[in-house]
Amino acid sequence: MTEAGIKPRQVLKTLKQSNLQLQSTPRHLYNLKAKIRQGKLSDKTFKSLRSNRSMSVEGNNSSSDGSLNLNYHLATQEVVSQVPLTTYEEFKAAIVAAKQAFPSWKNTPITTRQRIMFKLQDLIHRDIDKLAMNITTEQGKTLKGARGDVLHGLEMVEHACGMANLQMGEFVPNACNGIDTYCIRDPLGVCAGICPINFPAMTPLWMFPIAITCGNTFILKPCENNPGASMILVALAMEAGLPDGVLNVVHGTHVCYTMQESNAGGINHVVVMPDASMDATLDALVSAGFRAAGERSMALNTAIFVGGSMQWEDELVQRAKALRVNVGTDPDAYLGPVISREVKDRICGLVQNAVENGARLLLDGRHIMVPGYENGNFVGPTILCDVTTNMECYKEEIFGPVLLCMQADNLDEAVSIINKNRKFQHEVEAVLVGINVPVPIPLPFSSNYESKASFAGNFNFCGRTGVQFCTQIKKVAKRWKVFRSTLAEACIFSEAVCFRREL
Questions:
Q1: What was the pLDDT predicted at 37?
Q2: What is the C-alpha to C-alpha distance for residues 442 and 432, in angstroms, rounded to an integer?
Q3: How far apart are CA 485 and CA 493, in angstroms?
Q4: What is the model's pTM?
Q5: Core-most of 54, 56, 425, 478, by most CB within 10 Å?
Q6: Which helix (H) or strand (E) holds 472?
Q7: Is residue 143 within 8 Å of residue 329, measured between CB atoms?
Q8: What is the DSSP string of 5-55?
């Protein structure tokens, strides 16, 4: 019996009756069964697991026959939310809804689309506390970090409010005798976005506002670990006046966005010169390496100390030790739990592997315990020194609050560690460089590019280049008066148009 007097068999039987696909007890129910056996399932939680499944397609709620995905509080392991896993039929319905909504939405005046973004901006400001609390609960960030997540996404909504200017084309009068040419930016059609685990609000806001304001329709797939923020944002977009079918949501676990890259593909480096300011440098290392529990694609995970700067390691350890690890709702918390128990185990395994291969463990945060939250996925700040490029901790992105420290005799050697033999800033092989800035976050009004190895295409999906990413150029040639051109002129113009198409 549980504390609420509910028998485990009764719980599972009720779940299976409301969802036939749970008859085989899939993997995501294992934790639930363990909770039931341990008597940790409350009556309130049990009632929340009853049939109350819906997904957003065409702005309406439709029942789902798919299985449930349960989301846990990262500090207590209690079930905090549930979403239906979209069936194949529902996924097709979302695509159909987006296709059907596209012609009308494409022809909606750009000023009307902008006004919806202005309204969405106001609604996000209104509900920012609700969004932040949801992110803290489902993703583990501190409330301050969660608000920052929302605010960075809000910048993209504000950017989309100027789409009338951003989407302007080009015009060339009288390009050939009696013929004007112009280019316009047409929307692509149905677009889709997959959200990662680390920015539940910022990432969807970096995707769908630009895409839909350009005239596209959109299918959003939230991260299965923390879908709440995406669902709140979609509801706000509907409240702002977005028509049915323009923005659709599908849930699932088979398609995901991975933040892990091998062969140092996801490793971010900092080069510390011996003449750098110690206080400013150590503050930057602590903030960029440990804030948000290191779960940022641009988190600083490798510091290369040049010359005598490595003598600061004792001070670095003291500053890292002073950081408060706690549940995200604690106002004094600097970093909260990582996203799952599996992620924690992976982080601890990479740290142990590094130690076994010769790294010095200056600070060990693997066994930190937060009173009252003993079951939480907490990893404290961890510092490894004497790391080499052949260690697994360097080859694979740890994606946790772990800082790797390496040493180099001079700048050339430091840069060679990063990309073999090139100079910093102008010659370093990186698409995002910060100088005296630990985490250079892209802003929406600047162009954001990715290296060819990590991004397919020439443009990123956010910022100024996001408009180019979400649209295609249509070139038009228009004769504005009856004009008898010579046969030679007509041939030249036709050949020029064909040549541009071939390019």
A1: 45
A2: 9
A3: 10
A4: 0.72
A5: 56
A6: strand 471-479
A7: yes
A8: S--HHHHHHHHHHH-GGGTT--GGGHHHHHHHHTT---HHHHHHTSS---E
**Phi-psi domain of 241 (left: phi exceeds 0; alpha: psi -120 through 50; beta: other):** left
Q: What is the DSSP letter of 340?
A: -
Nearest residue to 159 via CA among 108, 198, 120: 120
Distance CA 365, CA 363 (A): 6
User: What does the alpha-carbon distance between residue 374 and residue 127 come to, in Å, rounded to a whole number?
Assistant: 31
* Measured distance CA(145)–CA(54) in Å, rounded: 29
CA 393 vs CA 60, 89, 384, 422: distances in Å? 46, 42, 9, 24
* Cα(274)–Cα(71) distance, integer angstroms: 46
List the beta bridge partners of residue 289: none
Smallest CA-to-CA distance from 290 within 320, 328, 314, 312 is with 320
Which residues are CB-contacts of 244 (< 8 A; sequence separation ≥ 6)?
58, 59, 60, 97, 101
Burial of 156 (0-12, 13-18, 19+ CB in 10 A): buried
Q: Tell me the CB-side half-sphere exposure of residue 217, using CA atoms within 13 A.
A: 27
DSSP string over 225-240: T--HHHHHHHHHHHHT
- pLDDT means per 10 residues, the chain with 503 residues, are 46 50 38 45 40 39 61 84 85 94 95 96 96 93 94 93 83 78 86 91 94 95 92 95 94 60 59 90 91 83 84 91 94 92 94 96 94 93 94 90 93 80 50 60 53 46 70 77 53 46 42
DSSP class per residue in 87-134: PHHHHHHHHHHHHHHHHHHHTS-HHHHHHHHHHHHHHHHHTHHHHHHH
Question: Could you give phi then psi for residue 349, rounded to 5 degrees?
Answer: -65, -40
Residue type for 401, please?
A: P
Q: Which of 207, 269, 198 is nearest to 422 (CA)?
A: 269
- Listed in sequence order, the DSSP H helices in 140-197 are 143-160, 163-166
Cβ contact 262:269 at 8 Å = no
Distance, CA of 12 to CA of 141 (rounded, Å): 32
SS3 179: strand
Residue 181 is given by DSSP the state E
